[in-house]
């Protein structure tokens, strides 16, 4: 029961909650429980804790998708929660078994390594990464030094200090948090926005899109953009993910966009060797660049074993009221797009939750970031807000302005400090004129990448070697003492005493 309550408590500290300061408290309970129990018991407690944590954090999934696809989709939710809970439980049990007496201080580094590993591969999923708990606090400013991993490590180290409980350790943990707070509160002010952009929020029902694209979708965005530019001229315009029903490589679409007479970044499908979720840069009457979505949503945009399991997938799609989906072809490269005179690093929806994608765009020359998204699938749940708050950290890691356009929201401008300078309400149709600036410098995180993850792996290796050395030392000491007793006790009838040998004059 305590594990269940502690897991729920941790979930309530994550965005959109503003009590992220409290995240180390329930995590401290878990770390102490893992340290004080056997690996098997640690596994069970952590699984319960993690199932409660992810069960609450991701509750928006069945809440938002069930009205769209029916109750059948809710059956997939426990499986996802269970798989995520297994990763936490396995990490806790393995750390307890391998690290022994060093378990408590190995756990923060093990969790940092786990969060980094969860972001890798086609099934990468970063919801629940510890660093996001501190996203609403000044401590998140540390992300420009070591990315989300450094912020997550700070959460975990604070939890370990609380679990340890010794006054000097608590004082050290408090000092570490204080240093992070000082760093966060003393960052330079955001550079003033010296350019204007127009972000467009079309607010089109995703179910209508799934049923077939229509020309009036494009007309809606064209009308909104014209009205917005008439009121406030802009240097560039950003439309959301899949805003246009057809790519601007089609002559009729290109003619319509050319009439706007402004550089444009827009989401549109690409039919080239399969369906691709793309973002296009358009200006001067032609396409100036294209970026295909690289990181696809598992079981949403790509379906593992789709050919082999065709029959199973067709049954599932039929139950959910969907056509026989074939999935999306992933992109292979990331490169900034020239939108007018600006080099824009585009992140398509899900990609904004992965630090590596924004970092890669900046290293390739992006001077401003743009997130194009369609969060209308989330409905009125907190899923869209969680997505937005996770993407907000990309501005801090790279110290770049982020221009975000969502189909039904969140449409906003985010300064390099992570401050939201302008935002449209969700679920409305409208435009948002914003100011922004370009930047060319690299943060330590952009320059050095996941050095915190590498450091965590080295620390774990050092703790493991230290544990092995201690065990070997104990084995040697026990072996020498046993051999010494055997030799002495085999010397006739002599009996060893603390003063000497019986029969002799007592002496020390």
TrEMBL record:
Keywords: Acyltransferase, Cell membrane, Membrane, Plasmid, Transferase, Transmembrane, Transmembrane helix. InterPro entries: Apolipo_AcylTrfase, C-N_Hydrolase, C-N_Hydrolase_sf, LNT_N. Its EC number is 2.3.1.269. It is a multi-pass membrane protein. Residues 200-438 form the CN hydrolase domain. It comes from the Bacteria. The chain crosses the membrane at residues 12-31, 43-62, 74-94, 106-125, 145-162, 169-186. Pathway: Protein modification; lipoprotein biosynthesis (N-acyl transfer). Pfam families: CN_hydrolase (PF00795), LNT_N (PF20154). Belongs to the CN hydrolase family. Apolipoprotein N-acyltransferase subfamily. HAMAP family: Lnt. This is Apolipoprotein N-acyltransferase. It comes from Deinococcus aetherius.
